[in-house]
Amino acid sequence: MPELISIKSQQALTRTAQHRPGVPLRAAKEPKKGGDGGPGAGTALITRTRQQTRRPNMYRVLLLNDDYTTQEFVVIVLRKYFNKSVEEATRIMLHVHNHGVGECGVYTYEVAETKVTQVMDFARKHQHPLQCIMEKK
Description:
Layout: H1 7-19, E1 25-28, E2 43-46, E3 58-64, H2 71-82, H3 86-99, E4 101-108, H4 109-125, E5 131-136
Antiparallel strand pairs: 1-2, 3-4, 3-5
């Protein structure tokens, strides 16, 4: 179990660490009352770590064309689950119809996965074979 060091010792270590960032320090601690003074007694190792944050991976949500899902249904899906305007939803729907695939949006993994599931469930509920997938951008 790590031993506690006094406030004064902590302040001295902080000042020293500011002069040599990233360098592990060993500092003498105040002696423990009744301690045995065994090996390593009275020393502590302090290290500094920096947390690095990364941007999350992004995923494209795509609709795939089929011969049975109506164009109107695709527009409804785009408006309901991707908050597209009528004009934007119609443009994407026509792209899906003409090119076989269309991008609905780019999201983090969890959001993309949720949208794919919602679209697929909605399509099945209304007996449409519409396919919605996600791919890493």
